Amino acid sequence: MVAIRDESREDAGAIRFVLEQAFGESNEADLVEMLRRRGTITLSLVAVQENEVVGHILFSPVTIESGGSSLNAIGLGPMAVLPPYQRKGIGSQLVRIGLEQCGHAGHEIVVVVGHPEYYPRFGFAPAKQRGIRCEFDVPDDVFMVLELREGAVGGRGGIVKYQPEFTSA
User: How large is the angle between the packed helices 12-23 and 27-38, nearest 10 degrees?
Assistant: First the structure.
């Protein structure tokens, strides 16, 4: 049985381990630590099984900028599960619970750079269809958007700008 809960201070090392094992490098772990240090994490959840952190998901603020205006949104990522625990539904639990908590907190729009076969099951669709582009050079099919409140995008497009740590990690 896996429990999903908010990250605690004591989880920092375990989260780093999960990210390094899942991604095979330290970039994502470094990113999470930089965001944590600056206090720019909207939501950070861990999946725990038998007192071991086996998964992690992070949400941080982004803006959708167009002309002279901007729209607040949330970026999902990174999300990771230790390799031996992958394909057991843990990542899906993290995403579902994370999106639910973001919605309850009043957030209306979530963007993700992720696998185009994975994230649509949660309601994500290609952002390009909504006139939304990523500030990073990523393929159109991996950059997706989800409205937590129907009509939140409201025909407004623009370029999603992530926290500065995303360019230095």
Answer: 150
